[in-house]
Amino acid sequence: MEQHAWILALSAIGAGLAMIAGIGPGIGQGFAAGKAAEAMGKNPKYGGRPATVVMLLGAAVAETSGIFSLVVAIIMLFANPLVSRGGVTAILAASALGAGFAMIAGIGPGIGQGYAAGKAAEAVGKRPKLQSAIVRTMLLGQAVAQTTGIYALIVALLLLFVNLF
Predict the structure, then answer these.
(1) Which positions ≥6 away from 95 have C-beta within 8 Å?
(2) Domains present along the chain, CATH in parentheses
(3) How far apart are CA 95 and CA 89, in angstroms?
(4) With b meaning 16 or more CB within 10 Å and e meaning fewer, what string describes 21-38?
(5) Strands, E, within 62-158: which ranges?
(6) Alpha-carbon span 53 to 43, nearest angstrom
(7) pTM for this one?
(8) DSSP one-letter string for 62-106
(9) pLDDT tens digits for range 49-93
(10) E strand or H helix that includes residue 19
């Protein structure tokens, strides 16, 4: 198999691996939605709308690691910079595969951020008057939880765009 074909083949595998990170946001968003529904059930008069707003905001943040993985997968499939780069085929192909593996780290932030969103929705359901303070705390916690997803994105982009080897 020629160099170009090897790089494309392993890029396709890497793109598929990158999308495994979508597991995290799916679990996290499901947890957040479940907690919002639970808050609505416990406090239908006051907790429903505030808990839903918090859940939607938190779930949107929890999706970022899935979006990062999608970006890396699309780059590998449609604008792969490794294909036109000269060099050792094995290193370039492994870089494509490594970029996909790196994005699997997005599972953690997705679950963690969704958990924070769920707990915030639950708290707002119990105490709707504290919504702004609860959202502020949730977003701060989610920002910290996002760091590993950002690290994974940086590593994947370095493997794709910087000639490290």
Answers:
(1) 82, 159, 160, 164, 165
(2) 3-77+88-161 (1.20.120.610)
(3) 10
(4) bbbbbbbbbebbbebbbb
(5) none
(6) 15
(7) 0.81
(8) HTHHHHHHHHHHHHHHHS-TTTT--S-HHHHHHHHHHHHHHGGGG
(9) 788 888 888 888 889 889 999 999 999 888 888 888 777 888 888
(10) none
